[in-house]
Amino acid sequence: MKNKINTSKAGKRGQHPVKKAGHEDLFGIHPVTEALRANIRSFHSLCLSDPENSRFGEIIRLAALRGLNPTGCTPAELTAMVPGAVHQGVVLKASPFVFRDMGSFSDTIHPPLVVVADGVEDPGNLGAIARTALCLGASGLVIPKDRSAGPTPAAIKASAGALEHLPLLQVVNISRFLEEAKEEGFWVAGLDAEGTPLHQARLDGPMVLVVGGEDRGVRPLVRRHCDIMVAIPQSGPVGSLNASVAAALAIYEIRRNHF
């Protein structure tokens, strides 16, 4: 199908979601709620600080649908499960995150928009980018296998659970992925402070938006595979925007042009 990218080379992945052995401890009300709602993982146990508290009502309802009975745990027990995390009184033990292939990227929203996070290493930024991408109708998010934040419980918490719904593809070679995208008719735009002002750029049709890492921006090799570099006009003494904020502005502008 047009505008679906063959990732057999770019990601070295098959045609089915990629599952790993083991488990992860998800924490926080929104991440746990959305993991249960998405129902992509398998679930092992659910611990709540107060199963009678009404704020856990939706979690308990969804857990029942998944065959889970919540267990009451003390705050100290929950903290021991996820040291240093703001767990909000809930920890869900689940199978590891499920990566997707490009066939999982929705083509029901036209034109499609795929966001590539090129070396975004902060889990908070990755989560925020995923949250914006999902809310604004992006088809999916792509990250490199190395030198990148991954879909850890902390990133999922930062995404408010969006990473449980948004298809996430992990590839070995971002440049190769972009070339395959272009072969399928996608126009590739990279974010760069010296690029064409965003409001003057071509942003129609199937798009791939490349967001660079916090310190380096879009890497030179990846930049060479972009059709255009675009910039968000700025003023004031601060030289650049946070990666997730820049991504949010660019995703919104692309979607505004699409519709």
Automatic annotation (TrEMBL):
GO MF annotations in UniProt: RNA binding; RNA methyltransferase activity
Signal peptide start-end: none
Compositionally biased intervals (Basic residues): 10-20
Biological process per Gene Ontology, one example term: methylation
Region Disordered: start-end pairs: 1-22
One protein family per Pfam: SpoU_sub_bind
Keyword terms of this UniProt record: Methyltransferase, Transferase
Keyword NAD listed: no
RNA 2-O ribose methyltransferase substrate binding domain: residues covered: 25-100
Gene Ontology terms: cellular component: cytosol
Residue intervals passing through the bilayer: none
Matches recorded under NCBIfam families: rRNA_methyl_3
Protein name listed in UniProt: 23S rRNA (Guanosine2251-2'-O)-methyltransferase
Source organism (scientific name): Desulfobotulus alkaliphilus
